[in-house]
Specification:
Elements lengths: L1 E5 L3 H12 L3 E5 L4 H11 L3 E3 L2 H7 L2 E4 L6 H8 L6 E4 L19 H8 L4 E5 L4 H4 L12 E6 L2 H12 L4 E4 L6 H17 L13
Parallel strand pairs: 1-2, 1-4, 2-3, 4-5, 5-6, 7-8
Antiparallel strand pairs: 6-7
The structure holds NADP nicotinamide-adenine-dinucleotide phosphate.
The site of NADP nicotinamide-adenine-dinucleotide phosphate has 27 residues, from helix 1.
């Protein structure tokens, strides 16, 4: 599959390296430095190219949005139409100083992105910390972390769930896109545990019976 990635930062590159290993072709886009974009693609693997956000959208069977909340509008403008595209957003609406969320519980980054790109087949997934993706294994003592994903397009969700499985995590269907307003604060909880509480690399595991 071709995966166009908007955002060549910690998350884009962290997920991208798993997808290259699984045989996908990538196109990275949207960095303020073209040198950084090229070096990220080169580090991720031979099947990773670079382009503009609009080119990444054209290229991708799936488009991944992996930018900071403050850059979302600009990135979407640069991307152009996402009509009909399966879009995986891992965006959380973190304030720049990580002290809180810009939106939450009554809406979410994902719902706002859906409003900005109403034709996109949007799925939100809140993957593990980038440092976990960049570590030798995303597993914790052999256990796969849970990654919640949500969206309103079942076919798009199935495609994203397969891509999440390739990250060696356990994807759990968290329901419709509006549940992103609960999933995103759970990501903020992990940020608090990791940084404010000093717990370091943490992830979630859902227990069910
Ligand atoms: N990091 C995590 O552990 C984690 C976990 C779950 C969810 N998330 C969410 O995933 C998203 C991406 O996180 P990340 O850690 O990958 O971020 P990041 O490392 O800062 O990457 C963001 C990317 O967006 C690009 N960008 C281009 N123009 C920008 C602008 N004007 N302002 C800001 N960025 C711009 C950056 O380009 P440059 O190359 O120029 O910097 C970079 O390639 C965020 O919404 C975050 O909340 C992150």
């Amino acid at each position: 599959m071709n995966i166009g990635i908007i955002g060549a930062g910690n998350m884009g590159s962290g997920m991208g390296k798993f997808w290259v290993k699984n045989g996908h072709n990538l196109m990275f886009s949207y960095s303020r430095s073209s040198d950084k974009l090229k070096s990220v693609a080169a580090a991720v693997g031979e099947t990773a190219a670079v382009g503009t956000p609009a080119e990444a959208v054209q290229f991708g069977d799936v488009v991944v949005l992996a930018v900071s909340w403050s850059a979302v509008e600009d990135a979407l403008q640069a991307a152009g139409s996402l009509d009909g595209k399966v879009v995986l957003s891992c965006v959380n609406a973190l304030l720049p100083d990580m002290s809180g969320l810009a939106v939450g519980t009554s809406t979410s980054a994902a719902e706002e992105i859906a409003r900005l790109a109403p034709g996109a087949r949007l799925v939100e997934a809140m993957p593990v910390f980038a440092e976990v993706l960049h570590s030798p294994s995303p597993r914790f003592e052999g256990v796969q972390p849970t990654v919640f994903y949500c969206g309103d397009d079942e076919e798009a969700k199935a495609i994203v769930a397969d891509l999440l499985r390739e990250l060696d995590v356990e994807p759990i269907d968290a329901g419709p896109l509006k549940n992103a307003r609960y999933v995103e604060p759970s990501g903020m909880l992990l940020v608090q545990l990791a940084y404010a509480q000093g717990m370091g690399a943490v992830a979630m595991k859902l227990l069910q019976r």
